[in-house]
Each structure stands twice: as structure tokens, then as C-alpha cells.
């Protein structure tokens, strides 16, 4: 059943897409409003804002959870993701969460392509990796971290190919490996012990 038009809200099944633009059924006017979607148990799955038939604004998704309350009174589970859209494409910061509410990752998009920093977190909240993207490809400084917070590895990419310094570290922070790449080819490398002595190069 369609909701009253004055509410500016439709359920997902009430929309049809034509050439990348969303319309309500039997309408020739691109849809503007908020679209909720639901799990089979009635809990909210997502809310999607549209302007002129295209996603525009903050889209949010939610986890489905077991509902043991009388009559299933839980409206939605924990927040699962937040993604911003401009003219139907992801644009701006996006955040993704674990079921316990812990931030799992944070990304940035420009015109539908991943761009800028991406942060990935472990279940305990510590940073696992920090990578950079350009036009949807890994580009620039890439870093991973040990569980104790120390830098584990650092390298630079040029259009997803190693280019520049590449370093790996022991958990105590001591340099374990140092190398230098040019267009994916290694030109210099050295290996170190945990006390800083050169093992071989």
C-alpha cells in the first residue's frame, strides 16, 4: 500500500528505477523523499533519502537482531553503516560499524569512487591499517599496525604499484626491513635485527 504523498516517504517496494532514476509506481515524476526498507521481522533495515529520483544525503543501514520482547517491539538494530550520496553517487565520508557499535572502518568517496584516507579498526578499537586512495585505486602512503599500536609496515603506491620507500617494523618499533621501489622494481633493500643490526642487504 502506498503511503500518503504528503509524508514524502515511501517504502522501497513502491519505487521503480528507470534509467538510473527512481519513481513511484505509475508516476512520471522523479521521487523526492525518504525510503525505508525493512527486514522480514519488521525491523528497520535502511533509510535512503532521494532528491529528484537519485540518492542524495545520508543513507543509513542497520543490523537485524533477535527480538525477544513482547510483540517484537524493537524497531531497529544497531547502526551498521552511514554513507553520504550526491546525485546518486557516494560522496564524502562513509562509516561502517560492528554489531556492538564499535567503528569498523571509515572511508571517503568522491563522485562514487573511493578517494582519500581509509581507516580499518580491530574489534578492540585499535587501528589496524591506514590506506590512501585516488580515483578508486590504492595510491600514496599505505600503513599497517601491530596490535600494540606500533607501526608494522609502511609503503608508497603509485596507481597500485610500489613506488618509493617500503619499510617493515618489529613490534618494539625497530626497523626490520627497508627498501626502495621504482615503478614496482626493488632497487635497494636492507634487513635488520630487533636490536638494529644489519643482517643482510
What features would you highlight for this structure?
17-stranded antiparallel beta sheet; mainly beta; 19 strands; disordered N terminus; 201 residues; two-stranded antiparallel sheet; 2 domains
How would you characterize the overall build of this protein?
The protein has 201 residues and is mostly beta strands. It folds into two domains: 9-67 and 76-86, no CATH class; 115-201, Outer Surface Protein A, domain 3. Helices cover 0% and strands 57% of the residues. The chain contains no helices and 19 strands. The chain has a 17-stranded antiparallel beta sheet that branches. Strands 1-2 form a two-stranded antiparallel sheet. The radius of gyration is 23 Å and the shape is elongated. 12% of the residues are buried. The model is unreliable at 1-7 (pLDDT under 50).
Summarize this structure briefly:
By secondary structure, this protein is mainly beta. It is 0% helix and 57% strand. The protein has a 17-stranded antiparallel beta sheet that branches. Strands 1-2 form a two-stranded antiparallel sheet.
Structural class: mainly beta
Mean pLDDT: 91
How much of the sequence is in beta strands? over 45%
Question: Which H/E pattern describes the elements?
Answer: EEEEEEEEEEEEEEEEEEE
Radius of gyration: 23 Å
Shape annotation: elongated
**CATH level 1 name of the largest domain:** Alpha Beta
The total beta strand count reads 19
Report the total helices: 0
- Overall number of structural domains: 2
Distance between the termini: 72 Å
Q: How is the main sheet built?
A: 17 strands, antiparallel
The CATH topology of the largest domain is what? Outer Surface Protein A, domain 3
Q: Name the helicity range.
A: under 10%
Unreliable stretches: 1-7
Write the CATH architecture name of the largest domain: Alpha-Beta Complex
Amino acid at each position: 500500500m502506498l503511503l500518503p504523498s504528503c509524508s514524502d516517504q515511501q517504502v522501497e517496494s513502491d519505487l521503480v528505477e528507470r534509467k538510473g532514476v527512481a519513481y513511484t509506481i505509475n508516476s512520471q515524476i522523479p521521487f523526492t523523499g525518504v525510503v525505508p526498507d525493512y527486514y522480514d521481522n519488521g525491523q528497520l533495515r535502511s533509510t535512503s533519502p532521494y532528491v529528484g529520483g537519485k540518492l542524495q544525503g545520508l543513507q543509513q543501514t542497520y543490523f537485524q537482531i533477535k527480538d525477544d520482547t513482547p510483540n517484537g517491539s524493537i524497531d531497529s538494530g544497531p547502526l551498521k553503516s552511514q554513507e553520504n550520496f550526491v546525485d546518486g553517487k557516494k560522496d564524502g565520508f562513509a562509516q561502517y560499524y560492528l554489531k556492538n557499535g564499535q567503528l569498523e572502518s571509515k572511508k571517503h568517496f568522491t563522485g562514487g569512487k573511493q578517494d582519500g584516507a581509509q581507516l580499518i579498526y580491530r574489534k578492540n578499537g585499535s587501528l589496524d591499517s591506514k590506506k590512501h586512495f585516488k580515483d578508486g585505486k590504492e595510491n600514496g602512503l599505505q600503513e599497517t599496525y601491530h596490535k600494540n599500536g606500533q607501526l608494522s609496515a609502511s609503503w608508497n603506491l603509485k596507481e597500485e604499484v610500489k613506488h618509493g620507500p617500503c619499510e617493515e617494523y618489529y613490534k618494539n618499533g625497530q626497523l626490520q626491513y627497508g627498501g626502495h621501489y621504482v615503478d614496482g622494481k626493488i632497487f635497494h633493500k636492507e634487513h635488520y635485527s630487533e636490536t638494529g643490526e644489519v643482517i643482510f642487504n
